[in-house]
Amino acid sequence: MSGTDARVLTISPGSGSRASIATFGALVWSGFRRYATYRQATAAGAFTNIVFGFLRCYVLLAVAAGAPGGRPGGYDTEQLATFVWVGQGLLAVVGIWGWTDLSDRIRTGDVAADLLRPIPPVTAYLAADLGRGLHGLLTRFVPPVVAGAVFFGLREPERWQTVPLFALSIVFAVVGCFGCRYLVNATAYWLHDARGPLGFWTLASGVLAGLYFPLRLLPDWLTVTLWVSTPLPGLLQTPLDVLVERDGPAVQAGLVVLQAIWAMIILKAAQIVQRRAERKLMIQGG
């Protein structure tokens, strides 16, 4: 913080927009730098994603070979390969698992320091998570995609709007996933130990986000219900369906809009839960 004006380190309704943007950017950069220090873990994670990419791809291609018409869920083999390999690359970008920063700080009591800072906890953690996602995009996204392109061949977008929609979808996926993880971690305010909710989140998010298999393999009524009533398909299924152009342009854009709505709802819910938790701590004298 040396050489930085203290006024820049405040994000609040009374602070200037330029100061708030500068502070938010500094927090994003700090999140990026934090994960950039783990070079060996980054390389090992990329290698692991590639190994599981081969396993998942061969399984889904075997399913396609045995499906009537060779198009399970409406995907051809090239779309399935793209779905798998880009999904493996997005894992570290979206960051479904492994984040326990908030629950750990609640359990140890260090969260009190977060509440004393001029930056709202949700804003500070979101900025750091965006930095983490940017690091994952630059380091963990490319290797699985390259491996898939070399060994299987991936589908290239045919519509001009697919690439910008996919980029937007990634941003909404990162924000939505952060909000979900924040809510799960925040249960520690009441339970004092969030390992149970975190374990449930690990199981549910992998299945309902489209990690283990495309949700389009499920019955249509169940797929639509999951998409409309939960934010989880927006974490992986939506960006991947947008990229492989599983649907027409109108549906493609509609899925991104639905994903954006869910991201805003979940982020707002995280802010509400955080305020309620702070009032709870104040009532208890914390």
UniProtKB/TrEMBL annotation:
Keyword Membrane: yes
InterPro entries: ABC-2_transporter-like
Transmembrane parts of this sequence: 44-67, 79-99, 137-154, 166-184, 196-215, 250-270
Source organism: Paractinoplanes atraurantiacus
Protein name in UniProt: ABC-2 type transport system permease protein
Domain of life: Bacteria
One Pfam family hit: ABC2_membrane_6
Alphabetically ordered keywords of this record: Membrane, Transmembrane, Transmembrane helix
UniProt key word Membrane: yes
